[in-house]
What we know:
By secondary structure, the protein is mainly α. The protein has a domain at 135-295. 54% of the residues lie in helices and 0% in strands. It has 12 helices and no strands. Helix 5 (135-151) runs parallel beside helix 8 (200-220). It starts with 24 loop residues before the first helix and ends with a helix.
Amino acid sequence: MDWPKTPGRDSRHSSAFDISWPYRDHHMMDFLAHATGNAIVDEHALPAELAAKRRRRGHLHTPYPQINWRHPAAHPGWRYTRSERRALRAATIHWPTSRHDLAAYANRDVLEAEWDTRFTNDGPVHAGAAALVWREPNAVATAFTSAKSARHSRLWKTDFLDAHNARLDIDAVMARIVTTAHRLWRTHADTHLHLGATDTTTWTALLTTLDHLTDYARALNGRADLLLAYREVLRLENVDDAAIRIEFGLPLDDTTPLNRTALDMDLNVELTALVCQLARSALFDEQDVAVQSSG
């Protein structure tokens, strides 16, 4: 099993002397649980007629939760036939939460062996425990860290991305990663196969999407983030020219008044160029293809 060697770390790249990975096992389990959400439906796993019915009812990409007996009439299942409800439950994404859950899959023996390799005794009971055992859910948890990083960036909270059509639909990208990863894992779980990729092409495409999301998050938190910080300092009224010269690395022996307007314009030019480059990133091409295929 080439993924993961360390929970959440991409084992395709060298991690020698890398102490920057801040997450532990419980973090990765939480990330998988959050990324999977509540009763996400793999729309591509539904029969064509049922998928069309969900589209007509406006249920496309909406969850199919377990019934709440306190408010049963509010459950969307009442709008579907019994066979349709069965298909919806089968297409709902669930990762095994404990070793006990593995008994429900055809490849039970192999799954239990993989689980036992990772854990002593029975292991944890957690909605995201699968992230510590199999590479597919681990990839989902890793993608969640990139999505989280992008959303927490300084640039994400501005209107710069919207103005240049560079705001990625992260929810849609994560949904695509989750459903693809779960589909791959279910192929392994439902067939009597040994360790190894069952669909190397799809797995490679999944990793490519994950890498693009990681690159997008890094770009948001890289030079662009620094430029925004510079701009914020530049626009503070109570900061003198000497402090700005230090921040910008300008000569300190220059006593001429600082042209803050010119500096601000230079920052905006560079920031705009970086954001426009983001808008041309590969993830947006993938996003367009995904929209066309689901339309």
